[in-house]
Amino acid sequence: MGKLILAVLVFVLAWWILRKYRKSMTREPPPQSGAAEDMVRCAYCGVHLPRSESHVSSGEFFCSEEHLRLRH
Question: Total domain count for the chain?
Answer without folding.
Answer: 1
